[in-house]
Specification:
Order of helices and strands: EHEHHEHHEHEHEHHEHEHH
Shape: globular
Helix content: 40-55%
Structural class: alpha/beta
Radius of gyration: 17 Å
CATH architecture of the largest domain: 3-Layer(aba) Sandwich
Protein name: Decarboxylase
CATH class of the largest domain: Alpha Beta
CATH topology of the largest domain: Rossmann fold
InterPro entries: Iso_Racemase_Enz_sf, MaiA/AMDase
Number of helices: 12
Largest sheet: 4 strands, parallel
Number of strands: 8
């Protein structure tokens, strides 16, 4: 047994631990679609109830410790929090410490992966599309501009989140609507587009958007998964899901970020 004590039949390169809101039905299948051979995804959930409120995000954050403890028993190699708005509204460094300390692994979150991905693409001026209600959009704009130095040149939210049913409904938005959203937010001065939310199905249209608008696109699940691969030191290019997955293959380290910048990884 000692000879195979580190072996995993399917996750022989790495096992990714993923924590998602309980209503999320998109993050897991999109992670699996992007996974190269030898990389597996192992998921836990934190309860999400009611309409979008600041309290609902902090209740999910409080539940991350128990979810991380459960994933630690699966011997995951990296842990990710698959909630963009939750890792924007709740302090990102604290979320990362909370997860990483429980699993003893590198930790990332959707919002941190997005920032790291935009920086890897050299973007400064960004156009942002979301499914969120106004207070979440305002929080996201502050996060991007005040915490990480981007310039948001346009932003549009679909205003989904007044009820729990609307929050679940984000997972029913057709990818074709995401394509139209990208067209709506694009501006000549935008270096890149950011489509936010891990429950918004976007993988099917990312290559179409990049081709037709002529600029890179970062989406929450793509960026979060990309950050997992980079933290694991896996330089595998993954085709079909945008320039970030195909071209930006350097490992993420703290050396990549300016002094004083809030942490994106742990």
């Amino acid at each position: 047994m000692k000879a195979v004590s580190m072996y995993s039949p399917y996750g022989w390169k790495a096992k990714i631990g993923l924590i998602v809101p309980s209503t999320n039905t998109i993050n897991e299948p999109e992670f699996w679609r992007m996974a190269p051979p030898g990389v597996t995804i192992h998921t836990d959930r934190v309860m999400l109830l009611g309409k979008a409120t600041e309290k609902s995000y902090f209740e999910m954050a409080d539940a991350l410790s128990q979810a991380s403890d459960r994933l630690a028993t699966a011997e995951v190699d990296v842990i990710a929090y698959g909630c963009t708005s939750g890792s924007i509204i709740c302090p990102l460094p604290e979320l990362l410490d909370q997860m990483g300390s429980r699993t003893k692994t590198p930790a990332t979150a959707a919002a941190g992966g997005v920032v790291a991905g935009l920086r890897a693409l050299g973007a400064k001026n960004i156009a942002v599309g979301t499914p969120y209600v106004t207070f979440v959009n305002e929080s996201e704009k502050r996060f991007l501009e005040e915490d990480y130095g981007f310039n948001v040149v346009s932003m549009h939210g679909m205003q989904l989140g007044e009820t729990q049913e609307e929050r679940r409904g984000i997972g029913r938005v057709p990818p074709q609507q995401v394509y139209r959203l990208a067209q709506m937010i694009d501006r000549p001065e935008a270096d890149a587009l950011f489509i936010s939310c891990t429950n918004l199905a976007s993988l099917d249209v990312i290559e179409d958007i990049e081709r037709d608008l002529g600029k890179p696109v970062v989406i929450s699940n793509q960026a979060c998964f990309w950050s997992c691969l980079r933290l694991l030191g896996l330089p595998t290019p993954v085709e079909g899901y945008g320039r970030l997955m195909r071209e930006c293959l350097d490992p993420i380290t703290m050396d990549a970020f300016k002094p004083g910048m809030k942490r994106l990884i742990a």
